[in-house]
Sequence to fold (227 residues):
Amino acid sequence: KNEVEQSPQNLTAQEGEFITINCSYSVGISALHWLQQHPGGGIVSLFMLSSGKKKHGRLIATINIQEKHSSLHITASHPRDSAVYICAADSGGGADGLTFGKGTHLIIQP
Amino acid sequence: NAGVMQNPRHLVRRRGQEARLRCSPMKGHSHVYWYRQLPEEGLKFMVYLQKENIIDESGMPKERFSAEFPKEGPSILRIQQVVRGDSAAYFCASSVTSGIGSNSPLHFGNGTRLTVT
Fold:
């Protein structure tokens, strides 16, 4: 069974700061997902990656398969980035095989 | 093209009552997944359904919980004789195919927050 750990659990930063959220997992995976859960509760899929790096706007996700570690970076953070960021390990069995971290609560203060 | 629709957004039930949570997947999606998010816990997989079939229910509690995805209409997650420990956010997600990837991303609904009093 995969164990997914995220750090930090809570993060408060000032607007404009560079943000890094970390995710480590214990068992090899086929892909790693990053999700964003808005204050209202809705969940949006941000990235799915199996190697290297992906970028979308101010968000960058990287993964190191050998080290079983992924990071989500936010450049030029903004208060609207305030949300819970969740990583999920995909063991290759599809969405029924996802193991989720507990999430990182991010608050960006103006 | 509407996203994954869940209703109700909030549901309050007294202990012993039944809770019915509905999920309409995105148009064209025939794969539906239910997840539960307990307070201070990560999302946990409950059940995976295709039209009229339960594919994987390994995450469902053995008693009181059931799910269906009929040929017509939304997927339903049903909890009988609710207890306080059932209070949680229940999320539904859908995809085009069974394997999720860049060509078949997973789309989540806004969740139903169940409170048992």
Remarks:
- The mean pLDDT of chain B is 92.
- Chain B touches chain A through 32 residues (CB under 8 Å).
